Amino acid sequence: MKKLFILTTFLPALALAQVDQTAIDRPTGPPEGTIGGGSQTGAGGKASDAGAQRPISVQLGGLSVFAGYDSKIVYRYNPQQMSPDLLDGITSGNKQEDKSGIWQNTISAGASSMPSDTDTLVITPLAGLSWTASDYLNDKLSKPLNDYATTVYSLLMIQHESGWGFRVGTSYTNVRNNNTDSEDYREFYPNLGAMKTYPIGPDTLGILDVSGGFHFTKASSSDLLYRGIHGTGNYEQLNNRDFAVSYTIRHNFHDFVISPSYRFSYKKFTEDDTANSGRWDIMHNLSLKADYALHENINLSSSYSYSRRNSSDENADDMKTYDLGFNIGINVRF
Q: N or C, fewer C-beta in 10 Å, the chain?
């Protein structure tokens, strides 16, 4: 049961961190493992005899504080997330711009208060912030794309005795270019979601997650151009609402946790009389992750993901990309 508590604690935050992959890949929540112990998570679990599940990371005596550091190296094909036509036009004769290693370092911290219990619910408020520096190892991409992102978020988690977990939250992200110290991107994102975690076998869990929200977004024109996204840098060009559903299997295999996952997302741009008027995007993402716990607070993982975007836009905004990554996370709770 303890293992299931950990899952219900950190997976909502993980879902929050996966928003808006169809435009610009930005963190909007805590890194994996900051809340709930990362790959210490077991796959098995039973329903609580008392009804609703109480997240284990919350100390009953009052405020629970958590902090983490995460370092990740990723090999990414098509890091600009451009359509093939745009990519060919920019790289023309120099295909090394199609790919890059990316080194990301994230520092995060946050706190949750004592949960409120009812007969059927456990309600836990959570707030935090994170800072992520992204360094593109391809010299031709480092100047336009190296950046650092600051995110502040709040989240209300509601765990029901049925096994369903619900959340409502909001986040604000600001991204600045390392070279010019100019703002490339900012976003305010109110969102909500629901998650169901259930045992498939003694060593395997199934996790269904559904989420949606509204993106109030602004990005610089140069950043948009380099990534193949239409816009002139004002809010109206980029505002959109999104819906996503994902299914993940977490399987304990000796000292590893293996997690295949599929995510479907739909985005609809909402502002008329703009470059993106009437546009919708569909994103498919397949991923496979393996976690290994070196210590209670230290986690190693490797991952592979493939993403494909299909767009209604007539200017060939379809794209595909894939990542191969390795990371180490150090996360503690007080």
A: C
- Of the candidates 135, 155, 144, the residue with the CA atom closest to the CA atom of residue 66: 155
pTM of the predicted model as reported, rounded to 2 decimal places:
0.81
Residue 234 has pLDDT above 70, yes or no: no
- What are φ and ψ of residue 87, in 5° steps? -65, -45
**């894939």: which residue's tokens?**
322
How far apart, in Å, are the Cα atoms of 263 and each of 160, 163, 209, 266, 321? 24, 21, 9, 10, 15
CB 305, CB 283: distance < 8 Å? no
Whole-angstrom Cα distance, residue 172 to residue 186?
7
Contact assessment for residue 229 and residue 24, using Cβ atoms and an 8 Å cutoff = yes
- List Cβ neighbours of 187 (8 Å cut-off, separation of 6 or more): 20, 26, 28, 171, 172, 173, 215, 216, 217, 218
Q: What is the identity of the amino acid at 59?
A: Q
Chain centroid offset of residue 310 CA: 20
Distance CA(241)–CA(313), nearest Å, equals: 16
> What DSSP state is assigned to residue 98?
G
> For 63-95, what is each residue's pLDDT tens digit?
889 999 999 999 998 887 777 665 555 544 455
Q: Which amino acid is at 69?
A: Y
217 Cβ contact list (under 8 Å, min separation 6): 20, 23, 185, 186, 187, 188, 235, 238, 239, 240
What DSSP line would sit under 224-253, residue for residue? HHHTT----SSHHHH-EEEEEEEEEEEEEE
Partners of 31 in the β-ladder = none
Q: Is the four-CA dihedral 112, 331, 150, 229 of positive or negative sign?
A: negative
Among the listed residues 229, 240, 144, 111, the one whose alpha carbon sits nearest the alpha carbon of residue 188: 240
Coil, helix or strand at residue 143: helix
Q: Give the count of beta carbons closer than 10 Å to the beta carbon of residue 109.
A: 14
Q: What is the DSSP letter of 135?
A: E
pLDDT digits 0-9 by tens, 109-163: 999 988 888 888 999 999 999 999 999 999 888 888 899 999 999 999 999 988 8
**Residue located via tokens 């716990």:** 293
